[in-house]
Write a structure and sequence with these properties.
Number of strands: 10
Number of domains: 1
Strand order of the largest sheet: 1-2
Largest sheet: 2 strands, antiparallel
Distance between the termini: 94 Å
Shape: elongated
Helix content: 10-25%
Number of helices: 7
Structural class: alpha+beta
Length: 252
């Protein structure tokens, strides 16, 4: 008795609907992979270097340690700390400071953001000054500097529309006020020195040996922590003095 011949199996039929579903799955997978890679690019390429809050550890370690809880944002007395936006890849939600808009109030009590950080992304050992250094100030556009031109300033440092806050000693040491509401009247601009919260971080040095020459040039010293107050308070546009992010004294 002969065995029955096996019936040939039907070949799968790929309908137009099936093809669309396959193409949709491939496209979705590609989008997921692309989105994942997109997160790496701003970090690896350093497209957006950011000024981190005081005490921030090494950048790669900081990005790994920060849990984006926002505690540092909540305790900052001048609302200087912001959280990274969606275009920052894995930096999204990570705290940073835009010093030109709002400098760190480095004179705040006990560096509150450092104490509030639960993961030590902001170093808790704040006795070591190098650990709370954010960067280093640098005279970036000397030709714009009013002090180097021998010029003074009358009125608010950044105009009436500027929203930056500052704890001004002559008004209230403990409560920040809007800089736009405070008028200066100085013969020679010395705002970077006058409002710097760190002793001996900046000095104004003569530009010649002529006693009648009132021109002075800002000189940054090792005590600078990179808080950004000089950049925020600078009345020129753009700022004559800026912060080099994470730069330390002695760096080339």
């Amino acid at each position: 008795m002969s065995e029955p011949h096996p019936q040939p199996q039907a070949k799968p039929v790929f309908t137009q609907k099936t093809r669309r579903e396959i193409m949709r799955s491939v496209a979705l997978g590609g989008a997921v992979v692309g989105a994942s890679l997109f997160g790496f690019f701003p970090v690896l390429k350093k497209w957006m270097p950011r000024l981190r809050p005081p005490g921030a550890i090494d950048e790669n370690e900081f990005l790994a340690a920060c849990i984006k809880c926002g505690q540092c944002v909540q305790v900052c007395p001048v609302e200087a700390i912001r959280l990274g936006d969606l275009d920052e890849g894995f930096g999204v939600g990570v705290p940073y400071i835009n010093a030109r808009d709002q400098a760190c109030d480095f004179s705040c009590d006990a560096v509150q953001c450092v104490l509030a950080c639960p993961t030590e992304a902001l170093a808790h050992d704040i006795d070591k000054k190098e650990q709370v250094r954010m960067g280093l100030a640098r005279l970036d556009k000397p030709n714009l500097c009013l002090a180097r031109q021998g010029k003074g300033l009358k009125g608010p440092a950044r105009g009436r529309g500027f929203k930056g806050l500052h704890r001004i000693e002559s008004i209230d040491r403990w409560k920040p006020v809007k800089m736009a509401k405070y008028d200066y009247d100085i013969e020679l601009c010395d705002l970077c020195l006058r409002e710097c919260p760190i002793d001996k971080a900046i000095t104004l040095e003569p530009m010649s040996d002529d006693p009648s020459d009132k021109r002075r040039t800002p000189v940054v010293h090792q005590a600078c922590t990179g808080c950004g107050m000089c950049e925020m308070i600078c009345p020129t546009e753009p700022a004559a003095i800026v912060i080099d992010i994470r730069r330390r004294w002695g760096d080339v």
